[in-house]
């Protein structure tokens, strides 16, 4: 359901680049700190930050409905734009768009195949508008010409090639009215005026069939929508199930919808939901983890496979339709794989393959010929570089929970292959955002970067993370700064006990909720971390919840239920006590704070407040602001400048290796509002970039 998807990405599971730092020890100089090595073997080649975090060469392959063309993202004059190429002729690609300011990140083929549609905001404000570009002429049109509007895609179907359904909150910022968009004329026609529904589901004819309404207790009511707009309740989703239950599509035949649900169980299973009487029928389940997603036939919408992601992701067929294809890909991919698009006749699929120690690559899979041909490598400059393997782990918490975690060690540090370095290494605890999200196995640019610089890197799925059953997720309710943080400390203690790291060489680092965890760690467990890097992290939970975007109205009750209710005296007291700002006087170690000025989720005031409080108490802090960014850093110049500063900070704090800054600040909007004096060389580097 739409509201579920919003909530699961609440505090930034899609941050494009996280991190920022202070105490740059050698900005723009060739100086390198002594690298912590586990053996006497020479340190691996230093991988350039721009190869890790700059623009990819190509990315995001998607096949046209008729199977004749491939669209993808690639730089045009340094900015990621949409390109299109004939099948089998990637090198003959031509650009379709010409955005000069902000990278395009989300696009899809119109069902008629004559246009590519994409969403774009301004400066990270997340007011995403919908654009269409004609494949033949490259003419681009703004299809939703409104201000202060965030467009939602409600329905796309190959059965209706010249129209799609979109949600627009230009009338009431809280609720998205559903409109039918004529792709030929650009005309928008109101389908449903929305005054209280969090999301809608349409069938293959673009007829609205289901609507979800938030309930006062944080649950959801799923209602059937009749042709005249009348609604009838057919399913109630309890508040405890709301993060793990939702509609996953409506097939052409059968009068049912697909439903992922944890009602009456812990792990999310796949059901059919009868659209007449609301009855459910179990299709598939797993006792390992939630079913995370399904693969459906592009013509019929019938489910053909599902995935389960516990330690690693795997796809499991439903019936025989794609069973042979899954077996073939499991054998040939030599790594984790995922389908990114399918032609209408379903013969050609685009596949992305992740082998961890190679850059990701997109491939074209021909089902009839049973061939798998590489389309392109996302970051070819990383081919042959010393990328590090990742370990998938189960770490016990103090109260008996299992914390699925991922550890990356520097290349060569584990000479005997037993999973631990020959000598303890400085460790970076990299905390994911959300918090209703999860870390997973696979190539991770930050893990590779930090491991290459000489650090062990640990990512932990603390309680509150999703995918491991509702009991694990719900165990995080009102546990910000409590057992959620205990899980992080338990994982650090595990690493210390295993000889992976010494206890005085651990940094905490994260974006969004991970930024909150960093601030909480620096204020409430200051003896456990040598330094912290907070990126767009909330410091005051009362002001955070008072300033969420208006269109989060559909899941605000869930937010209040799981974090704390700012509308009650008890809730406000809890939020105050769990706010790092309340405990700012306990900060005793180096801290860097990074913020995007246009962030609509964690507003700049969250960083401003704690920086001002630190200044008032004469506590040193480095504060970096990007005026043209939002909840994360999308522009490559901003990303590479951030990682350059972060790298210097961590090198000073933990002693890892450092690449000279070089041109990494060129074109960046980086502003150092506080603490430049605490960052040796930073003033000079900033002056040089001007």
Could you characterize what this model shows?
The structure is a single chain. The protein has 690 residues and is an alpha+beta fold. Among the domains are: 2-17 and 385-631, Alpha/Beta hydrolase fold, catalytic domain (Rossmann fold), CATH 3.40.50; 57-195, Neuraminidase (6 Propeller), CATH 2.120.10. The strands form eight sheets. The chain has a nine-stranded mixed beta sheet with strand order 28-29-31-30-32-33-34-35-36, sandwiched between helices. Strands 1-2-3-4 form a four-stranded antiparallel beta sheet, with no helix packed on it. The chain has a four-stranded antiparallel beta sheet with strand order 5-6-7-8, with no helix packed on it. The longest helix has 19 residues, at 636-654. It is globular. Mean pLDDT is 92; it is low at 1-10 and 12-40.
Question: Summarize this, please?
Answer:
By secondary structure, this protein is of the alpha+beta class. It is built from 13 helices and 36 strands. A hairpin with an 8-residue loop joins strand 17 and strand 18 (256-261).
Instruction: Give the second-level CATH assignment, the architecture of the domain at 2-17 and 385-631.
Output: 3-Layer(aba) Sandwich
Shape: globular
Quote the average pLDDT.
Answer: 92
For the record, the CATH class of the domain at 2-17 and 385-631 is Alpha Beta
Q: How is the largest sheet built, in terms of strand order?
A: 28-29-31-30-32-33-34-35-36
The CATH homologous superfamily name of the domain at 2-17 and 385-631 equals Alpha/Beta hydrolase fold, catalytic domain
Poorly predicted segments: 1-10, 12-40
- Figure out the total of helices: 13
Largest sheet properties: 9 strands, mixed
* Tally of strands: 36
Task: Provide the helix percentage.
Answer: 10-25%
Structural class: alpha+beta
């Amino acid at each position: 359901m739409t509201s579920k998807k919003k909530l699961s990405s609440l505090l930034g599971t899609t941050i494009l680049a996280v991190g920022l730092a202070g105490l740059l020890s050698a900005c723009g100089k060739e100086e390198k700190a002594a690298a912590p090595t586990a053996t006497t073997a020479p340190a691996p080649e230093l991988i350039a930050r721009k190869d890790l975090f700059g623009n990819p060469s190509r990315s995001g392959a998607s096949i046209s409905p008729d199977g004749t063309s491939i669209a993808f993202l690639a730089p045009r004059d340094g900015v990621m734009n949409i390109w299109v190429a004939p099948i089998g002729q990637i090198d003959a690609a031509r650009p379709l768009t010409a955005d000069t300011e902000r990278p395009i990140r989300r696009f899809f083929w119109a069902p008629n195949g004559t246009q590519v549609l994409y969403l774009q905001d301004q400066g990270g404000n997340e007011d995403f508008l919908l654009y269409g570009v004609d494949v033949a002429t490259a003419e681009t049109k703004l299809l939703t010409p409104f201000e202060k509007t965030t467009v939602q895609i409600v329905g796309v179907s190959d059965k209706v090639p010249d129209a799609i359904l979109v949600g627009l909150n230009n009338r009431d910022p809280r609720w998205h009215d559903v409109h039918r968009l004529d792709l030929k004329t650009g005309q928008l026609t109101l389908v449903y005026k929305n005054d209280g529904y969090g999301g809608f589901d349409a069938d293959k004819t673009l007829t609205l069939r289901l609507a979800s309404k938030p309930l006062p207790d944080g649950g959801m009511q799923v209602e059937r929508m009749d042709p005249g707009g009348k609604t009838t309740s057919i399913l109630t989703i309890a508040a405890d199930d709301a993060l793990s239950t939702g509609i996953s599509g409506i097939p052409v035949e059968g009068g049912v919808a697909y439903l992922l649900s944890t009602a009456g169980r812990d792990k999310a299973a796949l059901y059919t939901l009868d659209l007449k009487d609301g009855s459910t029928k179990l299709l598939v389940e797993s006792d390992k983890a939630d079913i995370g997603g399904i693969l459906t036939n592009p013509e019929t919408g019938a489910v053909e496979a599902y995935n389960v992601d516990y330690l690693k992701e795997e796809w499991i067929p439903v019936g025989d339709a794609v069973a042979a294809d899954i077996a073939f890909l499991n054998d040939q991919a030599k790594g984790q794989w995922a389908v990114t698009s399918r032609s209408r006749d379903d013969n050609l699929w685009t596949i992305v393959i992740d082998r961890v120690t190679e850059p990701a690559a997109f491939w074209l899979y021909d089902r009839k010929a049973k061939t798998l041909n590489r389309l392109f490598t996302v970051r070819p400059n990383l081919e042959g570089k010393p990328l590090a393997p990742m370990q998938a782990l189960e770490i016990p918490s103090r109260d008996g929970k299992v914390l699925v975690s991922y550890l990356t060690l520097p290349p060569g540090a584990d000479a005997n292959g037993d999973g631990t370095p020959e000598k303890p290494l400085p460790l970076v605890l990299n905390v994911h955002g959300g918090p209703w999200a999860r870390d997973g196995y696979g190539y991770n640019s930050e893990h590779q970067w930090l491991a290459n610089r000489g650090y062990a890197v640990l990512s932990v799925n603390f309680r509150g993370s999703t995918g491991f059953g509702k009991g694990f997720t719900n165990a995080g309710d009102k546990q910000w700064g409590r057992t959620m943080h205990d899980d992080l400390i338990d994982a650090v203690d595990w690493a210390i006990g295993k000889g992976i790291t010494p206890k005085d060489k651990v940094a905490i680092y994260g974006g969004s909720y991970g930024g909150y965890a960093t601030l909480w760690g620096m204020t409430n467990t200051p003896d456990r971390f040598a330094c912290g890097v907070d990126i767009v992290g909330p410091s005051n939970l009362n002001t955070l919840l008072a300033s969420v975007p208006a269109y989060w109205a559909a899941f605000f009750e869930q937010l209040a239920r799981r974090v704390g209710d700012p509308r009650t005296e008890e809730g406000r007291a809890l939020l105050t006590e769990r706010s790092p700002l309340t405990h700012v006087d306990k900060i005793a170690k180096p801290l860097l704070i990074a913020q995007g000025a246009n962030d609509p989720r964690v507003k700049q005031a969250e960083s401003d407040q704690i920086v001002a409080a630190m200044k008032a108490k004469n506590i040193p802090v480095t504060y970096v602001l990007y005026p043209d960014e939002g909840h994360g850093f999308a522009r490559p110049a901003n990303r590479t400048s951030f990682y350059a500063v972060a790298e210097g900070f961590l090198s000073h704090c933990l002693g890892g290796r450092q690449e000279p800054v070089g041109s990494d600040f060129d074109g960046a909007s980086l502003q150092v509002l506080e603490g430049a004096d605490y960052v040796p060389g930073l003033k000079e580097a900033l002056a040089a970039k001007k």
